[in-house]
């Protein structure tokens, strides 16, 4: 841990990861990812007042297992997972494992609230503005006019 790290980072590192440092490396990595999952479950509960453990446990534990798989790949081949194959590995894994977490956020969490706001007022969405700026879609004003014509 660098000495210049903020005090909160040092306290989190000392209190959360140090007790597990004596575990074998694979268990240490899984323990840290489990702590991260529990942290996100607690934060989600504090924000939404419901406990949704499955998506967070799946996401963080699967990421821990993926880190172990990458370490094993390096141990066997002597090379890191990088380049185009590393990019494909990372993004396909995140899309696959992250989907239940994204689904739960959109069904119960903050993202679902934003979805409702943006469906009623698309001119407030940065995505709509970006898609229009890139020339891939109508302007927010056109979307609002089309929505007003249907109502």
Structural notes for this entry:
With 151 residues, the protein is an all-alpha fold. It has a domain of 84 residues. Helices cover 76% and strands 0% of the residues. Helix 2 runs antiparallel to helix 3 and helix 3 packs antiparallel against helix 4. The chain is extended and about 60 Å long. 7% of the residues are buried.
SSE arrangement:
Elements: H1 7-17, H2 25-48, H3 54-77, H4 83-108, H5 110-120, H6 126-133, H7 140-150
Which terms summarize this structure?
single chain; 151 residues; mainly alpha; 7 helices; 76% helix; 0% strand
Short synopsis of the structure:
This protein is mainly α and 151 residues long. The chain contains seven helices and no strands. The chain has a domain at 7-90.
Strand coverage percent? under 5%
Q: In percent, how helical is the residue content?
A: over 70%
* Euclidean distance between termini CA atoms: 59 Å
Discrete helix count: 7
Pattern of helices and strands: HHHHHHH
- Pairing-aware structural class of the strands and helices? mainly alpha
What Rg, in angstroms, do the CA atoms define?
Answer: 21 Å
In terms of per-residue confidence, which ranges show pLDDT below 50 for 5 or more consecutive residues? none
